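#random but structural
TW: two for the price of one
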Amino acid sequence: MTSAPADGSGGRTLIRRLADWASDLELDDAPDRVVAHLGSQLLSQLAAARTGYAHPLGRRIARAYGGPLQPDPARAAVSLAMAAICLDHDDTVYAGHLSHSCVTVPVVFARQLQLDGRQLLTAILAADETAARVTAAATLGPFRGQAAAHTHLAGTVAGRLRALDAPARAWVNGLGLAFSVPPWTLTPGFLSTDAKGFAAAAPIQTGLTACDGALAGLRGPADVLEHPEGFLRRYADVPLPEEAVAGFGTLWHTETLSYKVHPGSAYIGAAVDCAVDCAAGLRAAGADPDDITEVVVEGSLLTSGLDRASRARHIGPDAGVAALNFSLPYNVATALLTGTLEPADLMSPAVERPERWKLAAKVRTVHDPHLSRAALLSTAPLGQALRRAGEHADAWVRATDARAADMLPPSWLAPETDFRFATKRLGARVTVRLHDGRELSAHRAQAAGAVGSGEHTALAREKFLRSGGHPEVPHLIAELAGLDANGVAELISLALSGAADEARAEISRGERRRPGRSRRTNSVDTRALEGAYGRLLRSADSVPDRELAELALEAAALAASDVLSEVEVEVEVEVETAAVDALLASAPRDVLVDLVRRNAAHLLGVLDRMPAGDEGHWARVVEDLRDHVERARKSARTDAGDARGEEHGAGS
């Protein structure tokens, strides 16, 4: 008799495990904080599409493939995805640029399938979680970001089949068929021409074709991801199969969303934000662009690496949109001159203005090891994958960029088990030097809108309104879970028709067509404790190392099942001095902060999943924990960091 695998998979392949979970996923399975991201993601993706269609490239896309509201959902999906990707104004998660398939496919099929609001949101959620997991499993390889076109194979199959409420067997065959012919992105076309749009269009077409086949009974290989000659072996230098199936119901990739304020690569977003800050300082100083001698951009290896790749293509006024999106000098120079960076800056006449290229020639990039260290500690874009890779991470990093090996966090750091405190710290520092010797500088620990930077609903709303979208749409998306099928169809038409001057649409709000399962009731409300940890993390720079070590160890100990399973146990867990001393000896300050972040998220996840019981006891546990965290924060040398939030600003 053969025993079942120790991992609890029951011998099922990765695709079967994904399909079994995602095909049955309901909106009520996700916490409210995760569901809130779905509306912002939808609104932000609609904004990216609208700005794309307004660009000359977007108009050519519409001529080639039709518009987003055409009767053929397959062509509409291709058109909508290409419009949204063309200005690099889309959002990211750990791992991947999901929305071109995970939002687009459910949106275009919503009218044909008569989805109500809850069904649309559920389809987006299932697509997000499926596509992000498959992308994460291959993220230590040659393809990341928009170049990881295979993301959209998973997003398309999951988004369409969840919208259809298709059974798990259809998912297995659909994913198996699609991943048997994955796309391979070639750099020359992707970095500098309109071919970048096909990184979304081609896999969407393949994914939809795979769905058609699966629904008609065609079979695909269920082990295509982990097979010795399968996808992960060919597409990943370090395959991470566990990333595809780890933490179902606890690791919500959707809540790692980072929202783009400006069009362009995420690797240069913080530098553009710094340039916007410096532009205000230049105006205050009465400085003219001709007064600038040089502009120095300090960034992580990811930023400096992108800059090297971009400069190799000698980008100028006649460059395509894709090349402009990746050009750090052009985007930083534009933000310094105008105080912003908008989609209009990626088209004529703005891109032809000689003063922009004159200033761009003065921009140089410098690698900052501290910013690289912060990037590698973050959840996205690589940190979680590096932690999952364990001892294999060092060899992969050395092969990719030997300089980064010395900046890797300790190999003993475990992967995160809860993404509620996820980070994407791709920071930058911009220094503007003037002829008279004055300097203006600005620093951003991460780009505006990056995960962990604050409230996302207002940001997505502002982005949509700046795209010229109808002002009623954000309000309707906020109520999307209550819209019936007619309301969803009218909402999509209103959002994509460009009819900003039309009269207010009357959207019907009816009962959802298919009832979802009831949300599980937790035994205790952990929101106050989560808020306390959040405030502590925002002011962590001023918290003593020993306090951080104690908090990290305490959270880890309390999360242990043998502690929390005892209803009568007191909340206070004695953290031995020797353990604190050992941690302080082995972990530098940035690792201590990261341990508090990871362990706090894990503890909160454990508390969220506690079965109903002595509610009074758990309320006391959470209250005591919250008080302890607040005391640690207030014992810091200063609370200025808490009020300041993310460090940024400009000054002479």
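TW: number two ↓
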Amino acid sequence: MPDLLLELFSEEIPARMQAKAADDLRRMVTDKLVAEGLVYEGAKAFATPRRLALTVHGIPARQPDLKTERRGPKIGAADAAVQGFLKATGLTSLDEAKIQRDPKGDFYIALIEKPGRDAIDVLAEILPVIIRTFPWPKSMRWGARSGKPGSLSWVRPLHAITATFGLETEEPDVVKFSVDGIEAGQTTYGHRFMAPSAISVRRFEDYEAKLKAAKVILDPQARKDIIFADAKELTFAQGFELVEDQVLLDEVSGLVEWPVVMMGSFEAEYLAIPDEVIRATIRNNQKCFVVKDPKTGKLTNKFVLTANIEAPDGGKTIVAGNERVIRPRLSDAKFFYETDLKTKLEDRLPKFEQIVFHEKLGTQAARIKRIERLAAEIAPLVGADVAKATRAAHLAKADLLTEVVGEFPEVQGLMGKYYALAQGEDASVAAACEEHYKPQGPADRVPTDPVSVAVALADKLDTLVGFWAIDEKPTGSKDPYALRRAALGVIRLIGENALRMSIMKMAASALAGLSLKPADAQKLPSDLLAFFADRLKVQLREQGARHDLVDAVFALGGQDDLLMIVRRVEALGKFLESEDGKNLLAGIKRASNILGIEEKKDKRAFEGAPDAAYGLDEEKALANAIGEVKAEASAAVAKEDFAAAMSAMAKLRPPVDAFFEKVRVNDEDAKVRENRLKLLNEIRSATRAVADFSKIQD
């Protein structure tokens, strides 16, 4: 079956837009093909700085013919209805229609056959529409005619369209269409400087090979592989090691069509700047990789750049040009850093009085005071020194007002640590200045130093409670204040550091520090705990745990010790994997279902102790087992030995199985029935010592 080759050749496409644009092109074309009945075998899209390309192979040469039936008027209907039917269906007379028998009467039926069109004609129709409606995040118009810009909106001026369609064994045809005066053809162009001449192409394999010969690597992944491999080899050859940066690699591969890796250098005096500042300077300003000494792990005064040309002088001029740009940038960074060191962190804090954190939550200065107070309360709970935690919370945000962080926001916190150490602060206080932002995502490191943990928890809880109190909660996919991330950070800090604390007590304390009216800790919205429960479900689900077990534990109420919830969920999960657990769950579910039906029927709950004068041995055995298990499980839960609590629950399985096998719950005697329903309620009550089993899915 034929293949399609499509290329949209333009001026430089921003690197950040290329991957999505390639994916959008593939999706839009293939969706349209399928909608037109042209089911293809495979498709792949590519992007370089100057082109989007797509190959779709295995497209049928022609659409399938469509046969449809259209129901018309009844036999004997008015002439106007008959004529309308004939006109709509294309029939010349009723003799061409079939008659369908129906209990309501006989109807005319038109058999309409719509012959399929050649795929190349369908492509000529859909491709211009796709090009004109392409979803660039930003686009422009150009090509003024009679003082008016062109009609096409594209990311950058579009110069040429290549569109061919045909079998591998034959010369392909050009898909004939035009967009804003640009005719589709078979002509593309190579590298802007090294091979700018026009190239005639036929199908994808020919196209890709000719581009490579014209110094264009079409596949973005191939360009990444070349840059990465050459950069590692170049640095290794000189005894250094490349500092890997996947995000930068993705960006750089979108800036070149023919990557050529080179190494430059800068004055060693700039190594006095923190490594992270050097890296941010070189990365942000010149899109270059930094290099480290493998023995010390510290940066060297080298950098790796990626050019888009094989220069006649071996790249000396290109390297010198990059060095010329990087040198003043590093000089600026060094000046900022040295200027920052002249002012102590605490001396910057008064400026926060003039900076609003949120109009309903006050200034940054007020927020810092809240975090200080909360960190001091949390410190004893996490084994941190109260004075150090308070000091760290006092200084943690100060680096936001420094010159370096103003220039490179990504090093906030980190620079706070460097400046704190430079002014002689305790190591734990300095570490907390950096680590109180962590963890910032599921893959980010969780602080373990108690001072960092205390400040990190205080910072996140203040954020959560503050925005919860002013009703700025996440809605749907919108979470402008990153409250989901903050809640997950709290969960990870508590879980990975095995901390024991009441979330709601800490939240109430955080609320009390807000200058809201009324600032009443008892009025903290109850759904905040549910929000933590939802985040905990996400966390446990990523670790392979079942979310319904979280519901089963939270349903008991009063559960806001996250560490104990996690341990209880883990023990419950292991128990339900055993045969005893599976069978007991089935028995408990059966008891709950019967109770639910009978309670609804009688419009009452069957609570209270059952009469001990049981008529059957199975009733007596179950009642005795419930009493024993309830005491044993409750004692184990009190000791936080959840494995033992589950073992106690397992003892219920034999008497529960025997009860349902031998005993008829809905006995004809009303008193016997009531007593047996109360016994079922005792099963439900006993198992709630560990979880609400009704929330667990089968």
